[in-house]
Specification:
CATH class: Alpha Beta
Shape: globular
Number of helices: 9
CATH superfamily: NAD(P)-binding Rossmann-like Domain
Number of domains: 1
Structural class: alpha/beta
Largest sheet: 7 strands, parallel
Distance between the termini: 61 Å
Number of strands: 7
Order of helices and strands: EHEHEHEHEHHEHHHE
Length: about 260
């Protein structure tokens, strides 16, 4: 039986058990949302994160962005529990380091996986949850928000591999297209980090990471919390912003003086 709309605004975050995703979940919980911590595989970790969030109403859920049937089932469960989704964050993503000139190492399997998760996945998630976003918009009388976690690699062409850069450019195109197609009920934006001091950065030499920071005008790299802050502002405060790519990169594409 479908529940009536929850009085509490609801946020769904794919990739919610990762470093950036969990920071987004924590920030949205502190903003007063009931948060669905989505996980593609590590549901136990997602459940732990959900249990530690501020406030009430949080749950963990299996949200495999590569499986549309399971996404539809998850959306049905969210409908029963909350009846609405006010903010949908597409944070699930995947990559593997491959030098840009090593085209033999960039196999079809690697390319397909990256595009399936990073580009097709967010589009499938939006398709599954659109009715619940529409329900929240009707309830509030104001546009609700989809926030896609992109990367400046989609603009600069510099990133972990060629396919990753292309997948993020494709995601930004999805953002722009759906911002037009889903208006005025749903706003769609990309939050586009540069280097983020997460688990991947921790695996690299400290002097290399410092060099990356030195190559930005602001002389620092983003934290997962910086990205989460941008998501919160984009979703809650930038009410006339849609189709935009919001950078969180220290100005890196500008170079340094």
């Amino acid at each position: 039986m479908t529940s009536s709309l929850s009085p509490q605004p609801t946020a769904v975050v794919t990739g919610g058990s990762g470093g950036i995703g969990s920071a987004i979940c924590r920030r949205l919980a502190s903003d007063g949302f009931a948060v669905v911590v989505g996980a593609g595989s590590n549901l136990d970790l997602a459940q732990r994160i959900a249990s530690e969030l501020d406030g009430t109403g949080h749950i963990a859920m299996h949200l495999p962005v590569t499986n549309s049937a399971e996404l539809a089932a998850a959306a049905s469960e969210v409908k029963t529990t909350y009846g609405r989704v006010d903010v949908l964050v597409n944070c699930a993503g995947v990559t593997v380091p491959v030098p840009h000139d090593d085209l033999d190492a960039l196999t079809d399997e690697v390319i397909d996986k990256i595009f399936t998760v990073n580009a097709r996945g967010p589009l499938a998630v939006i398709r599954a949850f659109r009715p619940l976003l529409d329900a929240a918009a009707r309830s509030t009388g104001a546009p609700v928000a989809v926030v896609n976690i992109s990367s400046i690699a989609g603009v600069t062409g510099q990133g972990s591999n060629v396919a990753y850069c292309a997948s993020k450019a494709a995601l930004d195109s999805v953002t722009r297209s759906l911002a037009r197609a889903l208006a005025p009920q749903i706003r769609v934006v990309s939050v586009s980090p540069g280097w983020v001091l997460g688990e991947y950065a921790k695996s690299l030499p400290a002097d290399y990471i410092q060099t990356q920071a030195d190559e930005t005008p602001l002389q620092q790299l983003a934290s997962p919390e910086n990205v989460a802050d941008a998501v919160s502002v984009a979703a809650r405060e930038l009410v006339l912003t849609t189709g935009s790519i919001i950078s969180v990169d220290g100005g890196r594409p500008l170079g340094v003086r």
